[in-house]
Predict the structure.
Amino acid sequence: MILVYAEAQDGKVKKSALEVVYFGAKLAESMNTTCVAMILGNVEDGGKLGSYGAKEVLHVSDASLNHFDSQVAAKVIADVANQKNATCVLMADSANGKSILGRLSVILNGGAVRGVNALPQMKDGKLEVEKGVFSGKAFVTSKVNAPIAVLSIAGNSIKPQVIGSEISVTSINVNVPASKTKVIEVKRTVGIVPLPEAEIVVSAGRGMKDPSNWGIVEDLAAALGATTACSRPVADSHWRPHHEHVGQTGIAIRPNLYIAIGISGAIQHLAGVNSSKVIVVINKDPEAPFFKAADYGVVGDLFEVVPRLTEAIQKYHANQH
Ligand SMILES: Cc1cc2nc3c(=O)[nH]c(=O)nc-3n(C[C@H](O)[C@H](O)[C@H](O)COP(=O)(O)OP(=O)(O)OC[C@H]3O[C@@H](n4cnc5c(N)ncnc54)[C@H](O)[C@@H]3O)c2cc1C
């Protein structure tokens, strides 16, 4: 049985949870087994995981799980994995997933692989698992030798599809250990898709010259339904908030579309973004290193190109209606 830990936020399962459940269902199909999802704490819409391939949704509803604690979550997930004889445990390669992966594999004595980006293959009774390394420049295939595999799945590795229907959620009894920390306050940015989950990202760098010029970036992002990001010096100069900083020392992302505006494409920036599926670069310098990593490039002044691009997208949307 494949067990999927489905993350939730504000009582709703996350998009990444749908991806991992669908991934788990596809893997279960190839292994001739079933995919079971589990949710922790207050989650109202767990039943919808059935639509994405979970045959069962197990709920540990203890109120202490409403705030994520990786030590507690790892123990609870391990308990469910043992009760259900799971041979594989999957989770999103999110900040929470990464914080569970190591602990869980130690408790279960499992074989852990982080950031898996393709469906594993069963070969000679062992799972072979592929992941990207060196910021997507190379791929590593690992064989899991332990009886249980513990895998985190990179975001946007698979497009979740409805392959079943909603199912009812079943409570499961688990001994929830006391947390060693206490959440006092959570302050969250609201209204935008967080960068790690965004499918489209519009990012800008020092070529913008001044923070007051960011309106054209925000307009393009709004036209595309994108999340905004920035290069490090932009965040360091307080032109943009630090949570937008992508790259080696910022957030690593892999959206379907990454639009880089006035960013040179330094290696440290590329480290966090070059796993994006399609990269579009807008830069006035034809020698800018970013063009080497680009799928599409526009050599031009961003102050002319970006508003025209936004206008074209708005026109396209208007014609669709
Ligand atoms: C240890 C370490 C870690 C780092 N980590 C990160 C990281 O995580 N993320 C990160 O981003 N950086 C990181 N950096 C910094 C990195 O090396 C670069 O300095 C940085 O990415 C450059 O930012 P930029 O491209 O916005 O600015 P610049 O390098 O100044 O590039 C600006 C670009 O804008 C273009 N431009 C200017 N005007 C226009 C115009 N009108 N129209 C179109 N194009 C225009 C220019 O041609 C140029 O290519 C790190 C550096 C170190 C040493």
